[in-house]
Amino acid sequence: MNPLLEVNQLTGGYSIGRPVLHDVSFAIEPGEMVGLIGLNGAGKSTTMKHILGLLEPQTGQIRLGGKALDENPEQYRASMAYVPESPILYDALTVREHLIWSATAYGVEERTYEERLVHLAKLFHMTPHLDKAAQHLSKGMRQKTMLMSAFLVRPPLYVIDEPFLGLDPLGIRSLLTFMNRMKEEGASLLVSSHILSTIEDYCDRFVLLHHGKVLVAGTADELREKLAARGGQEARTTRLEDVFYAWVGADDEDGGELIWRD
Ligand SMILES: Nc1ncnc2c1ncn2[C@@H]1O[C@H](COP(=O)(O)OP(=O)(O)OP(=O)(O)O)[C@@H](O)[C@H]1O
């Protein structure tokens, strides 16, 4: 199967000569959910901005459906929906108006829009809030509005940055349920999070970023094996989150450059 998204030896960031990302490579197959994991400042959002085309690679390439952004910008952009870390909403527009705007921008037919709207509003417990202006929404409701706008569209790829912050436990469960459903229907998802334990059971694979480099990538079992092979035998039984953060935390204390060796 051809990957839907290919990030190939990406070096990039905000200014030439001072890259934030160094030689980052990973791919996502159709129907796969991949967790992009790392500490604050590891480069997760920067990687996503490159995938969206908001930043240009200094070296390396990104392909979506086999094509780079400049080969077919319209198709590239229409093939993904993005949920940013901090909700970006128009204060004066209601939740419903945001959803209509999103459906229109992506060409979702009216009947399909209505069906999806009812389902998503129910799932995220937003039915009573659909006609509230964004400025009157709570933080979690703002986040849910962004998520619903993305999920209305049903693109091949979802890029979701820190989706769990601000959501209550019911919201987190609704989101995980829906992401799983999208995955089963063949969509691909790239989800960044610090909270590895929340997505450990949902992601097919993980890409662990540290100081802008891919430290290690693979399934949860593969990561455990690799970590255990480094001498941490407890990695076979401990939660992946504890193993990973103990490891990168120790690296930061040493001030050393941690490089994964297979
Ligand atoms: N707009 C920007 N201009 C210049 N540097 C930036 C900008 N945004 C982020 N950076 C830098 O890029 C590096 C990676 O930041 P990034 O936001 O990608 O990390 P992250 O893994 O998403 O972190 P967090 O978990 O805190 O959201 C950091 O050193 C940060 O200071």
UniProtKB/TrEMBL annotation:
<dbReference type="InterPro" id="IPR051782">
    <property type="entry name" value="ABC_Transporter_VariousFunc"/>
</dbReference>
<dbReference type="InterPro" id="IPR027417">
    <property type="entry name" value="P-loop_NTPase"/>
</dbReference>
<dbReference type="InterPro" id="IPR003593">
    <property type="entry name" value="AAA+_ATPase"/>
</dbReference>
<feature type="domain" description="ABC transporter">
    <location>
        <begin position="5"/>
        <end position="236"/>
    </location>
</feature>
<dbReference type="InterPro" id="IPR003439">
    <property type="entry name" value="ABC_transporter-like_ATP-bd"/>
</dbReference>
<dbReference type="GO" id="GO:0005524">
    <property type="term" value="F:ATP binding"/>
</dbReference>
<protein>
    <submittedName>
        <fullName>ABC-2 type transport system ATP-binding protein</fullName>
    </submittedName>
</protein>
<dbReference type="GO" id="GO:0016887">
    <property type="term" value="F:ATP hydrolysis activity"/>
</dbReference>
<keyword id="KW-0547">Nucleotide-binding</keyword>
<keyword id="KW-0067">ATP-binding</keyword>
<dbReference type="Pfam" id="PF00005">
    <property type="entry name" value="ABC_tran"/>
</dbReference>
<keyword id="KW-0813">Transport</keyword>
